[in-house]
């Protein structure tokens, strides 16, 4: 049992906070956490990242902790074969690879910056590894390159959509001179002779008001022609002389009259294109005469979930596990503005994957799993067979580095020639946190581009504590905000979901890590409010 569970009323997210920055050691050695066998490769890399300052002679305890962490990780991996809860088979080889990877990272030439490759590559060859920021730029540009389209939807269906064209006033606002208050419309200086009747909101034309006269008027009613001001009821004196109205203060010309066109004139641009329609925009559009709005069509997305090991329901058994990505990605993609047309469970069948890719008419295909080079990792071979153009093929980011982006040809059976829509495929790694990293690194900028949205203004915040980095790659770490500072969460291993489920976003930790107080970018989740 996790001792955190004992703390009554503790916020779920806070319960996941890292203690004293022991990101790596916590996930491997803590007696209250299950051992994490499969993460030993990443773990060793992370741990060795901690060694670097020590080797470079940096002062402080980080390097010392790093040494301990690295030793713990290597021994955990090496002895893991005998510990069923640590993953059982495969531990020895994981550990060996881990050590090799780790040693490779220590070599000076390996410590060099990941080369940043520009989009296009040399004659369509693999484009990668690309650094994290570069990958996002390529994805955004790929989306922006797609042909802009517009569809008209009724106002009630436009919430959350993106304006495809500027919102232009279809009428003056207000569309007639309007009384801003309940009281009397008056003509000229007082006192005024009161005319019979009342002018109410929503009524048709009213007779002109003669100089020296007044008529009762309601807020929102049309100002009678020739009226010069509105006298509020509470400022009026009546009864001093029958039928005569006076003001208890000066009444400037135009007082409490909203003149026609005060807010806008017909044809004025009220909002630029590419604004997300929120409830206030709907109100403005309605006031300005709109019954429907021209919005950018939601990019159509198909999700192809790969892997023979996946179950749709029930408890894991016999090496089978629950599909965590189908249930997570559909609403997440929709929150990013996509319309998910289908989720298909393809298994590890290369032929089925190729047929699904070839036939799909979606703007974006998102695959999960199968991005690496294992015996049943079919994404790369299928893309090659389909003649797809790789735009990004692996990214300098942890987790998620095998993620990829490719431009696809026309769907099967589509007429040759003009009008062929551009289709893209984002390949997400199978490990769930790695898949989220791919979603936010490649799919989100691509979708924003397809929607005509500019890249978001980066949100930055200082980290509350030391966050270890990878020596060459960016790290994406689940985090929460507390009092303006970012706290990284534990359970951040590539195969884990606990951290991300409690998180408000992913902290973008630069190569080498972040020191307490360093500002880092945060990729906020669509459902978290700015803070
Ligand atoms: N020789 C190497 N092997 C691996 C490398 C590498 O660099 N060299 N990278 C590792 C990393 S990092 C990742 S991430 C994975 C990426 O692998 P794939 O994209 O091919 O994913 P799979 O092998 O299909 O699955 C990985 C892992 O995730 C689980 N998974 C897959 N789909 C789901 C799902 N829908 N819901 C829940 N879990 C899922 C799957 O069972 C595996 O455990 O490759 C490493 N290997
Ligand atoms: O760490 Mo992998 O990069 O789990 O995606």
UniProtKB/TrEMBL annotation:
Annotated region described as Disordered, given as residue ranges: 244-263
Superkingdom of origin organism: Bacteria
Membrane among keywords: no
Residue span(s) of domain MoaB/Mog: 302-449
Top-level enzyme category: transferase
PANTHER family in alphabetical order: GEPHYRIN, MOLYBDOPTERIN BIOSYNTHESIS PROTEIN
Function summary: Catalyzes the insertion of molybdate into adenylated molybdopterin with the concomitant release of AMP.
Metal-binding recorded as keyword: yes
Protein name listed in UniProt: Molybdopterin molybdenumtransferase
Keywords: Magnesium, Metal-binding, Molybdenum, Molybdenum cofactor biosynthesis, Transferase
Family the entry assigns: Belongs to the MoeA family.
A Pfam family annotated for this UniProt entry: MoeA_C
Cofactor: Mg(2+)
EC number: 2.10.1.1
The reaction(s) this protein catalyses: adenylyl-molybdopterin + molybdate = Mo-molybdopterin + AMP + H(+)
Pathway recorded for this protein: Cofactor biosynthesis; molybdopterin biosynthesis
